[in-house]
């Protein structure tokens, strides 16, 4: 249990550091902003209590807000992601349900399941984040394009990160 908690703390530190030091300083045009830190929220155990999930999401978003000087924007988007996550996990649950303390992963549930899981949650996160940032509907289509492109790049980075950190299957 202690190792599991330490692994999540290390994942949090690494993803926040990569986001703040590398991804926030990369200019990919005005329409593309990847937010790899959402991988931390996507990787939390399926059976995590809702209250704890919401608290962790809020603290994750607040941490990014402190580094980006965006008061509450990332915190609100992360809390929305955490609020929707249990319902979405129930909707896409495997026939046998989830095991205790299982983390959503490509290796455990397969690529199509993980793609459906991550894509919707990333899109919801980006939808709120970018519309709160713009805070008007006069730029609706520009903002929607930004949401779609940023979500696609974030999803690509999440999947690549997942494959880079995935342990190889043992033959035993």
Please explain how this structure is put together.
This protein has helices at residues 2-22, 38-42, 50-68, 73-91, 106-109, 111-134, 140-165. It has 172 residues and is mostly helical. The protein contains seven helices and no strands. Helix 3 (50-68) runs antiparallel to helix 4 (73-91), helix 4 runs antiparallel to helix 6 (111-134) and helix 6 runs antiparallel to helix 7. The protein has one domain (2-164): Arp2/3 complex 21 kDa subunit ARPC3 (Orthogonal Bundle), CATH 1.10.1760. It is globular and about 45 Å long.
Key features of this structure:
172 residues; mainly alpha; Arp2/3 complex 21 kDa subunit ARPC3
Q: Which fold name is given in CATH as the topology?
A: Arp2/3 complex 21 kDa subunit ARPC3
- Based on DSSP secondary structure assignment, what is the total number of beta strands? 0
Shape, principal axes of CA atoms? globular
Oligomer: single chain
- The SS-based structural class is mainly alpha
Low-confidence stretches: none
What's the end-to-end separation, in Å? 24 Å
- Name the CATH class: Mainly Alpha
Number of separate helices: 7
Sheet-strand content, in percent, reads under 5%
